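User: Can you predict the 3D structure for this chain?
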Amino acid sequence: MDQDPLLPDQAFLQSLVDSHAEPFCLVDREYRIVAANQRYSETYSGLDKQAVVGLKCHQVSHNSDTPCDVHEDCPLRQVFQMGQPYQVVHRHYDQFHQPDYVVVHANPIFNARDEVVLIGESMSSISHGRDLCFDAERMVSGCCPSFMRVLDNLVSVAETDAPVLILGETGSGKEMAAQLIHRKSRRVDKEFVAIDCTQFTEERFASELFGHLRGAFTGAVENKMGLFELADRGTLFLDEIGELSLAIQAKLLRALETGSFRRLGETRERHADVRLVCATNRDIKDMVKQGAFRADLYYRINCMQVELPPLRHRGGDLPELVNYFLERGGHRTGISEAAYEALLGYPFPGNMRELRNILERAMALSKGAKLEVQHLPAEVVRKELAPEIHPVHAADDFVACVDHGHSDGDHVLEVLAKHRGNRRLAAEELGITERTLYRKLKTLADA
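Assistant: Here is the predicted structure, written as structure tokens:
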């Protein structure tokens, strides 16, 4: 690459790059790396920092000859088009070819004419693929747009202290998402306390959440600290909060609003500072309308919302997920095209947990041979036998790997026109971020 006369010389650029502690590089419009620090080069190539100069960024960090904008949201394109900083989650591959999910912070580098000539990319790791797991299984690997969007959202909400409501169907990994929020928050050094709200009666819930004194009730043979107090300065995760009775909801609301509570049998008031993360597989908003969930509690827990994609919306990730479970089960002979097509057409109401069980059963039946259609359950092979799915929303309006149709696009344009082209106001009315609105407009323009 010829040096832009309006930019500092190469030695100066290299010194700026070297000042970054995290992996960092400068990239031009042709995806070429102009300069990189040693941390970047070692992380993604195992080479010296000078050895990656001139290579394409996707060759180094994505281990691919194809630019990442084919399947991911490319920060290079966004920054050169908008001239503004941009953040996105990508799946990179380290020098050992292991997936590494990272937050990419991309910033424009201007010359003396105020033209964007380079972008500076810094990477901060979210987690390696092997660390992202539901129920002790790696169930999130992939780069389907819906999944990458969720990772981006989880990282964003983790940076705040606001309450989070995680929506997701059974088996979609809501607790894993809550754990990731905790690990990336400022509370990571304190406790992550999970409570399964389906397991408690009203009396037991109060005892488990707030604790009790010895003799407070039959069977209370000693003082007990409650989980609310245990989570002080940490994260309290309430799984399946939609299952709580109205009476329990009332008690919970007061503790959440004030941070104050009393152990059963105690007059002393205690206090705990907890970061609240809730999860449910039910449509809480609809429950509020039906009077089955308190509106004041709903607004208290729904400050920030993240919805996990069901497996049927992650078809692009299915080959990788299938391969993972087959490898974990020691199955080396693979799966036939017909059997894979049957899996691809199945709605997976039990999501990842169901996929794991189906493949474990098929491996047992195949006795080491290639997995065929006859090794799969009848409901997977015959669509008329497939069980009913239970989406979180009655309308099943989760944004999947594909964009919405033109009717959605028409609505977006109408809202934008209503606000005279003001993207911020249009995004607020649509209930999306300005970045998401920009992507929708770009998709419409390219259509």
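The chain has a mean pLDDT of 83. The domain at 406-446 is CATH 1.10.10 (Arc Repressor Mutant, subunit A).
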